[in-house]
Amino acid sequence: MSSAHSAVPTAAGSVPSPSSTVSSSASSASSGGAAPTIAELLEFVRSTARNEELIASLPLDPEGRTWIRLDGPGGSEAWLIGWPPGTGTGWHDHADSIGAFTTAAGALKEHSLAVRLPTDGWKTLELTDGVDRSRELATGQGRAFGQNHVHEVLNESEDVHAVSVHAYYPPLPRIRRFSRTGAVLRLEQTESPEDWQ
Length: 197
Hints:
This protein is mostly beta strands. The protein has helices at residues 38-49, 52-57, and strands at 21-22, 66-71, 77-83, 91-92, 98-105, 107-113, 124-126, 132-138, 142-145, 151-154, 162-169, 175-181, 184-191. The two termini are 24 Å apart. Residues 1-31 have low confidence and may be disordered.
């Protein structure tokens, strides 16, 4: 593992900037340059979350999220992220990327939508009853998801940092960010990788 890394705090909801890369031995989950599967991404984040030395190397900030970019399997984009108490991502999707994440320390909560949103051409949608899902992800628990997954991730603790490992393939081409009032979901902005650097 490379010892060179940096972590930069960001406001809740911001996407980590690829300013630093750390190699992880778990990145060998996919060989031969083949695109990783959802199962391989999930195995990568679970394995990486058990790397106590790596998890301990992440500087934690009391106010903003911090991160280290990792080498994911098969060319995937991967991140180690620290979550101060009370922070979250806000509602967003991952475009056509598949992904997985696991809580490495503390606990996270995920709210997601069991519905596929239109890819383009809308600003406001009214969600139907029964599409909301919530899950608690304690240390060691994670999940994988397919394309166009819409969710928000939160550290609801009042006093404990959480740390998680995330991986996406292909590397995120864009993220759409949403606001939500009751059943109404509103597209607020679309970000591309240039916005994160």
